[in-house]
Design a protein that fits this description.
Mean pLDDT: 80
Main location: membrane
Strand content: 25-35%
Number of strands: 8
Membrane topology: Single-pass type I membrane protein
Radius of gyration: 41 Å
Shape: rod-shaped
Low-confidence stretches: 1-25
Distance between the termini: 151 Å
Protein name: GOLD domain-containing protein
Strand order of the largest sheet: 1-8-3-6
Order of helices and strands: HEEEEEEEEH
InterPro entries: Emp24-like (IPR015720), GOLD_dom (IPR009038)
Keywords: Membrane, Signal, Transmembrane, Transmembrane helix
CATH architecture of one domain: Sandwich
């Protein structure tokens, strides 16, 4: 029984349409702008709702044709009572970020030229999506997990290199100590041998001198 006098199939279709719009609705901001050297960071703000997924990517235009020192620094953060940094990268030519907005507030994306060449004006391509499709979230979370694992592996690699360098240093010091001990032992052995030789020589000379003296005195 339809208590509201509505067509059941039509109501179900409207419900699915609304759910689909809620799941797949998102906004995209794409732009290209100039970033001159020597000026303060260029920032963009976006009001983002709570529990919205945010994905962005940026790159210097024709970065593959530019020298590697043509770089920028990028920061994504909030400036409220409890500021938080969601993404920070420096001295790069391209990058991307993704995070979940857990509060509804203004989010800032700031770009700074780090080329250190006053004659250069960089062109930046920037795209940011908010309220990303639910179907994209799994890929984003996987990518974020991969980034975390990559950072952990990098930390482990640096730790292993540090341990290897420390072990190499200790091995080198141990080799030096062994060489020093061998030289010291060799010198001590040589000194003992020379001391015994001089002692026996002096003793022999003293005996020869005494025998000669006693014979002259006709005591023996």
């Amino acid at each position: 029984m339809n208590m509201f006098g509505l067509n059941t199939h039509k109501s179900y279709f409207i419900f699915l349409l609304l759910v689909s719009m809620g799941l797949f609705s998102y906004s995209v901001h794409s732009m290209r702008f100039e970033l001159p050297y020597g000026k303060s960071a260029r920032c963009f703000t976006e009001e983002i709702n709570k529990n919205s997924m945010v994905v962005g990517k940026y790159s210097i235009v024709d970065h593959n044709k530019l020298p590697p020192n043509y770089t920028i620094s990028v920061e994504v953060s909030t400036h409220g009572d409890r500021p938080e940094i969601f993404h920070f990268a420096e001295n790069i030519q391209l990058g991307q970020f993704s995070f979940m907005a857990y509060t509804s507030e203004q989010y800032f994306v700031c770009f700074l030229d780090t080329t250190h060449d006053p004659k250069v004006t960089l062109s930046i391509d920037f795209e940011m999506k908010t309220g990303v499709k639910t179907l994209d979230r799994l890929n984003i979370l996987k990518r974020a997990q991969i980034d975390v694992m990559a950072r952990e592996i990098q930390i482990l690699h640096e730790t292993a290199l540090s341990i290897h360098e420390e072990m190499s240093y200790l091995l080198h010091r141990n080799t030096e100590m062994l060489e020093l001990n061998w030289i010291t032992d060799h010198r001590m052995f040589l000194w003992i041998f020379v001391s015994f030789f001089v002692t026996f020589l002096v003793t022999g000379l003293q005996q020869w001198h005494l025998k000669t003296f006693f014979r002259k005195k006709k005591l023996i």
